[in-house]
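User: Quick sanity check before I run a bigger batch. Here is a single chain. Can you write out its predicted 3D structure?
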Amino acid sequence: MPAEGQLKRDALVQPVGLGGGEALIGVGFTRTANAAFPLAGLEGDLNAFPVLHAVWAIGPHAVLELKGAARKALSIEARDPAPAIELDPSVRDGTTRDVGDFEVAVSLAPLGGPMGFSAGAHVGVKLPNSDETRGIGTNTTDVTIAALFSWGSARWRATGWFGVGILEVPIEPFEQNDAFAYAFEALWDATRNWRLSVGTRGRTSTRRVSPLGTGDLGEFRATVEWRRGPIAIDAGLGRGTTALSGDWNLRAGVAWTLARDP
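Assistant: Done. Predicted structure follows.
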């Protein structure tokens, strides 16, 4: 896989182990149909813009990334008359807006080489940026710790991780819900300029009944990406696999490669 194709905007899981020195910054938007927020008792179509994503291959076996939505807007189509939390009065007008939660993550693959099999670890932290009274976020800190595996050749690479998600329960102090967390994405360089990818990401609670705000999430996604020099334009279609994940998800964006291996 060429050095300029190493990193991916809005990736389900970043490819790791293809060399260091590359950095990428991207912006995009997403639209999710029939998203559900049980903590606030709201359902509707969710738009996010701008969705920001910065990635840096800090070494030949390590990737650092920051991603999240600077703004989200929910068109409320259904609501619970008795939500678990008291909502901000502005939510009553049929639309609510809030900043999205941002995630900082590090992926390492020190075992193995750039081709063939490699392995390592993934650690991610979701920061409590949102205001739960606006109905979209949970204002919690969640941590993911996982084992990472990758396999690839010159034109394709599959990377995935699986481990535990430690989820803070929004309305129960000093309470957490542990979940099985997973991610997988396969990238294929169809031509020099076009790349295709398919993958899935989500979490499954270890409890029979999950506390509000920590329920199961999951999505299958396919994307197409066009690259020319440092510019990459992508578009994708996702399908939610749980009741809280929404039905269909549309996303698109553009990214700029700031540096890459010579």
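Residues 17 and 113 are 7 Å apart (CA to CA).

User: Great, the batch can go ahead then.
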